[in-house]
C-alpha cells in the first residue's frame, strides 16, 4: 500500500442527498444536511474536503445489479409491488439521488485508494439486492463500488463490514458465493429484515446485548477475518442505529460503544495499510443531535487516526 498518501480528507456530498422524498421522511433526511455543517463547525472539515458526485451511468448501476431492474428504475416503470417493497414513491428526483450517492461512493473508494480513508455523507444502501430494491434502498452503493474496483482491477480481495443494526441482506444477495468479496454483517437478529439473506459471515445479536459483549464479538471476528482474508480494500457501513437512543435499533448500545466500534474498524484497516471507504448508513434517534453527533464521531476517529 505504498501509494497511499495520508493527510487528505475527501467527503462526498450534494444537496440532493437531503431531498425529503416524502413528508414522513424529512426528519431522517435532515442529517445529510447537518453532518457537513457540524463537521465544518467543529473544524474537522472545510469546503476543500467536500466533493460533488455526478450522476452514475446506467452501466455503473449495472455492475452488480440486474440490467432489467436498473432499466425499470431509469424509466420509472417498476411495478407497484416493487415500489411498495422499496417504501418510497418512485420519481425522477429519487432515482437521481440514488445515482449521485452511487457515484459518491465510487469516487470516495478511489480517494480511499489514494489517501487511506474517504467518506460518503450518505449511502450504505445495503438492502438493495441484485434484482430488487427494499427498505428505502434502490441501488446498493458499496456493493456496486466493490464491483467497480474489481472490474478496474484496483482490488482483488474486498471486505464489506456492515455494522448497521439491520442486516445487509441486499449485499449478501449480490455476493452470495462470491470468491473476491467477503460480506460481514453484525446486526440485530430480531430486527428488519425479518427474512435474511446469508452473508459470508453473519453475527445476529440479541436486543439486550451489553457494550462489552458487542465489542468483544466485533474485535474477535474482525481479527479473525483480517487474518484469514487479508483484504486489499474495505467498505465500512457505519450505521449509528445501534445506539440506545435509536427508536428502531433495539440494541441499546452506548455512544462510547459506538465510538469504540469505529475505532476497531479503522485501527484494523490503518495498521494493515488497507484503504477503507465509509458510507454512513442508518440512524433514527428521536433527537437529531444524537444522530449527527454519532455520525460526526465516526469522522473524528478517522481524522485523528489518519492525521487528516
Give your account of this protein's structure:
Helix content is 43%, strand content 11%. The protein is α/β, with parallel strands linked by helices and 308 residues long. It has a single domain (11-306), classed as 3-Layer(aba) Sandwich (Arginase, Chain A). Strand 4 (158-162), helix 7 and strand 5 (181-188) form a beta-alpha-beta unit. Helix 8 (211-229) packs parallel to helix 9. The longest helix is centred in the middle third of the chain and has 24 residues, at 92-115. The model is unreliable at 1-6 (pLDDT under 50). Residues 30-295 form the Histone deacetylase domain. This is Acetoin utilization deacetylase AcuC-like enzyme. Belongs to the histone deacetylase family.
Give the key terms.
disordered N terminus, 8-stranded parallel β-sheet, 10 helices, Arginase, Chain A, 308 residues, alpha/beta
Kindly summarize this structure in a few lines.
By secondary structure, this protein is of the alpha/beta class. Helices cover 43% and strands 11% of the residues.
- Report strand %: 5-15%
CATH architecture: 3-Layer(aba) Sandwich
Number of helices: 10
Please estimate the helix content: 40-55%
Q: Can you tell me the number of structural domains?
A: 1
Q: Count the strands? A: 8
Radius of gyration (Å): 18 Å
The strand line-up of the biggest sheet is 2-1-3-8-7-4-5-6
CATH superfamily, by name, is Histone deacetylase domain
CATH topology call = Arginase, Chain A
Domain Histone deacetylase: 30-295
Protein name: Acetoin utilization deacetylase AcuC-like enzyme
Keywords: Hydrolase
Family: Belongs to the histone deacetylase family.
Amino acid at each position: 500500500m505504498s501509494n497511499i498518501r495520508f493527510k487528505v480528507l475527501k467527503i462526498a456530498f450534494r444537496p440532493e442527498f437531503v431531498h425529503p422524498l416524502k413528508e414522513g421522511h424529512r426528519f431522517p433526511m435532515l442529517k445529510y444536511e447537518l453532518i457537513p455543517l457540524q463537521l465544518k463547525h467543529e473544524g474537522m472539515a472545510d469546503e476543500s474536503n467536500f466533493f460533488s458526485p455526478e450522476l452514475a451511468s446506467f452501466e455503473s448501476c449495472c455492475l452488480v445489479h440486474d440490467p432489467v431492474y436498473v432499466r425499470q428504475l431509469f424509466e420509472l416503470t417498476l411495478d407497484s409491488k416493487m415500489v411498495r417493497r422499496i417504501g418510497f414513491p418512485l420519481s425522477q428526483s429519487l432515482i437521481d439521488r440514488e445515482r449521485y450517492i452511487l457515484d459518491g461512493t465510487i469516487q470516495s473508494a478511489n480517494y480511499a485508494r489514494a489517501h487511506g480513508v474517504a467518506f460518503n455523507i450518505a449511502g450504505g444502501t445495503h438492502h438493495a439486492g441484485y434484482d430488487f430494491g427494499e427498505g428505502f434502498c434502490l441501488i446498493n452503493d458499496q456493493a456496486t463500488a466493490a464491483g467497480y474496483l474489481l472490474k478496474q482491477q484496483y482490488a482483488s480481495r474486498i471486505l464489506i463490514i456492515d455494522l448497521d443494526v439491520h442486516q445487509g441482506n441486499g449485499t449478501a444477495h449480490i455476493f452470495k458465493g462470491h470468491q473476491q468479496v467477503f460480506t460481514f454483517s453484525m446486526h440485530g437478529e430480531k430486527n428488519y429484515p425479518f427474512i435474511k439473506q446469508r452473508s459470508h459471515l453473519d453475527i445476529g445479536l440479541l436486543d439486550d446485548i451489553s457494550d462489552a459483549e458487542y465489542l468483544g464479538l466485533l474485535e474477535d471476528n474482525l481479527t479473525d477475518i483480517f487474518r484469514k482474508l487479508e483484504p486489499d480494500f474495505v467498505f465500512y457501513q457505519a450505521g449509528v442505529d445501534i445506539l440506545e437512543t435509536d427508536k428502531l435499533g433495539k440494541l441499546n448500545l452506548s455512544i462510547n460503544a459506538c465510538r469504540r466500534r469505529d475505532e476497531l474498524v479503522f485501527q484494523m484497516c490503518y495498521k494493515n495499510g488497507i484503504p477503507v471507504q465509509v458510507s454512513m448508513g442508518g440512524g433514527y434517534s428521536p433527537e437529531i443531535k444524537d444522530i449527527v453527533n454519532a455520525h460526526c464521531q465516526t469522522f473524528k476517529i478517522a481524522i485523528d487516526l489518519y492525521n487528516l
